[in-house]
Design a protein that fits this description.
about 400 residues; alpha+beta; Rossmann fold; D-amino Acid Aminotransferase, Chain A, domain 1; Aldehyde Oxidoreductase, domain 3; 3 domains
């Protein structure tokens, strides 16, 4: 990848920084990272520090880097105490004050934004629902990516602090990426989230498994997504990247699920399709500069899948640490398959943890899925790593 001239430094803080770090490099920034996962391909982007994602540990790790703006990623974007600490020491890109997070996680606000924009919002309650015949979920206000979502027990026991009940709506989950600049939003892309069969009881079946996109978007749906983003940005004084998770039910109705003010996992799909840097666009929009984003390719899409270990697995001593080498070992087409978030040799992985990420390119979702199926089979055969279904 040929990199543009250095435009300065940014400090990325989140559970996984690899995709955002490469995005920053592509946009001409030198990234520093405070992260939970020190993947082999992250080490090629610049300096990083491993840290437990607790406020004190992250604040201490941040002090090891020169003064520069902070871009908060998944795993840290909803932690109010952490954001409060970070905002006192550095500027958080796109977020004027950490208090906006509470507004974004309040179901009553999400319900109002949905209604104003032509979306539905699943029924919710802070107290035990009277209707116990329909399926309900327990949700944690302060988590994202499906990690704080579980099936409500038949007893309808009360949720933990910050939790609430929400009615389950069947349908296809999607994620939209938008860019907010000067109070106005621009739809960047929409992707479909990968569904998963329920795993073992100890594996949470609502966690993020991956996405496929960019997908074509109907004009009316795009306008309604931008309307939600405009209302959120106005209420919370946000700028830069905004992500909207929503559901399309079997009747074609759209339901708002959550809104997150950050670079999301699905951003990488648009970047690989277009060559753009959404981290650069995020920084520019937060600084009040308009970003002209290229269109994604109309002839291809990307599929991104997080590979979770279906059983305990240790990377072998001869484990390759680049995608090119992995494809060679597995005799896969390097133009259609990319391996990312790569572990190190001898690194152990307990049951259910993410091991690496599989990205495949195709002319259609079926084409990308075919490449992914071949790659997963080769991974199992060559390295005896069995992914969760």
């Amino acid at each position: 990848m040929q990199l543009p001239a250095n435009r300065g430094t940014v400090l990325l803080v989140g559970a996984s920084c690899r995709a955002a770090a490469w995005s920053a490099r592509r946009g001409g920034f030198l990234p520093f990272c405070v992260t939970r996962f020190g993947d082999a391909d992250l080490s090629a982007t610049g300096q990083f520090v491993l840290a437990d994602l607790k406020p004190a540990a992250v604040a201490q790790a941040v002090e090891r880097f020169p003064a520069c703006p902070i871009v908060v990623l998944g795993g840290c974007d909803l932690q109010g105490e952490m954001l409060e600490r970070l905002s006192k020491a550095r500027r958080i890109v796109g977020m004027p004050h950490p208090a906006v997070v509470a507004k974004l996680r309040e179901p009553a606000n999400l319900e109002a934004w949905a209604a104003e924009s032509g979306f539905g919002f699943p029924a919710w309650s802070n107290s035990s629902p009277r209707d116990t015949l329909s399926p309900w979920l327990l949700k944690d206000r302060w988590s994202a990516g499906g990690m704080g979502v579980t099936w409500a027990a038949k007893s309808m026991s009360p949720p933990s602090k910050g939790g609430y009940w929400q009615r389950y709506i069947p349908g296809a989950a999607h994620g939209a990426v938008l860019l907010v600049n000067g109070g106005r939003s621009q739809l960047v892309c929409v992707s479909a989230m990968l569904s998963a069969d329920p795993g073992p009881e100890q594996i949470r079946d609502f966690r993020y498994r991956g996405s496929c996109g960019p997908l074509p978007v109907r004009k009316d749906l795009g306008q309604r997504l931008e309307a939600i983003a405009d209302r959120v940005a106005a209420t919370c004084e946000l700028s830069g990247l905004l992500n909207i998770d929503f559901l399309i039910d079997p009747e074609g109705d759209c339901w708002l699920l959550e809104v997150n003010p950050r670079y999301s996992s699905s951003c990488e799909l648009f970047e690989r399709s277009s060559g753009a840097s959404l981290i650069a666009a995020h920084v520019e929009a937060a600084d009040g500069h308009a970003s002209a984003l290229p269109a994604g390719s109309q002839n291809e899409l990307w599929r991104k899948e997080v590979i979770y270990a279906a059983e305990a697995w240790v990377a072998p001593k001869d484990w390759p640490v680049t995608s090119h080498e992995l494809c060679q070992r597995m005799q896969l087409c390097k133009s259609s398959v990319v391996w990312a978030d790569l572990p190190w040799p001898d690194q152990p992985h307990p049951l259910g943890v993410p091991v690496l990420t599989l990205l495949t390119r195709g002319r259609s979702q079926a084409d990308a899925e075919r490449h992914a199926t071949e790659a997963r089979a080769a991974l199992c055969t060559t390295f005896h790593l069995r992914p969760l279904p």
